[in-house]
């Protein structure tokens, strides 16, 4: 069992989706490439933030993700 990526995109959208997923009681792992790029001395605004959930939680969060995608 591992992590499954459920989103890649801007930090603002990632935070909005993270809130929705956590509201249904599922933990989200956030990989923020903006911070990594900044520390490395180069900018990267494309697919800057990635969200992951446990594979076993995917069925639970999928409806939330689909609803979110329709709203953006």
What's the structural blueprint in terms of helices and strands?
Elements: E1 3-9, H1 11-23, E2 29-32, H2 33-40, E3 49-54, H3 58-71
Antiparallel strand pairs: 1-3, 2-3
Structure characterization notes:
The chain is an alpha+beta fold. The chain has a single domain (3-71), classed as Alpha-Beta Plaits. The chain contains three helices and three strands. The protein has helices at residues 11-23, 33-40, 58-71; strands at residues 3-9, 29-32, 49-54. Strands 1-3-2 form a three-stranded antiparallel sheet. The chain is globular and about 30 Å long. The protein starts with a strand and ends with a helix. The model has no long low-confidence stretch (mean pLDDT 87).
Question: Separation of termini?
Answer: 30 Å
- Helix coverage percent: 40-55%
Give me the Rg, rounded. 13 Å
Indicate the low-confidence ranges by residue numbers: none
Query: Could you give the count of β-strands?
Result: 3
Category from helices, strands and their pairing: alpha+beta
SSE series: EHEHEH
Strand content: 15-25%
Largest sheet: 3 strands, antiparallel
Subunit arrangement of the protein: single chain
> Overall mean pLDDT score?
87
- CATH class, please? Alpha Beta
Say what the CATH topology is.
Alpha-Beta Plaits
CATH architecture: 2-Layer Sandwich
Protein name: DUF2007 domain-containing protein
Organism: Flavobacterium petrolei
Question: Which features would summarize this protein structure in a list?
Answer:
72 residues, Alpha-Beta Plaits, DUF2007 domain-containing protein, 3-stranded antiparallel beta sheet, 3 helices, alpha+beta
